[in-house]
Amino acid sequence: xxxxxxxxxRLNLDLPxxxxxxxxxxxxxxxxVMDVSGLGLRITTKEKIVLGQEISLQVSISPDQSxxxxxxxxxxxxxxIMSSTEYAxxxxxxxxxxxxxxxxxxxxxEKFIQIFKKK
Length: 119
Prior knowledge:
- This protein has 119 residues and is an alpha+beta fold.
- It has a single domain (11-118), classed as Thrombin, subunit H (Beta Barrel).
- It contains 1 helix and 6 strands, in the order E-E-E-E-E-E-H.
- The protein has a 6-stranded antiparallel beta barrel.
- A hairpin with a 7-residue loop joins strand 1 (11-20) and strand 2.
- It is globular, with a radius of gyration of 14 Å.
- The chain starts with 10 loop residues before the first strand and ends with a helix.
């Protein structure tokens, strides 16, 4: 039996996002945000990413709004899905709170409250 040692609750989501490995908009890679917490996110991507790598993640939080969150790769797991390689990765939020990170946490908090109101 494994014990979950996370400091924050996770919210399961399926949000479209893109990441930039070099910080530029010309090299965006599409990813899916699978879950979020107050400290980080779990994504899946076809792009190989490296442990410790810093990534700017643009997350779509509504059809007309996206935010940028600066993260660092905390773990990576290679997965074989239907004869192709994909990667799951845990990203830790690393930047001090600016407007986008504050919006991200507000979005996360509102979604989390919605789930608990349903229970």
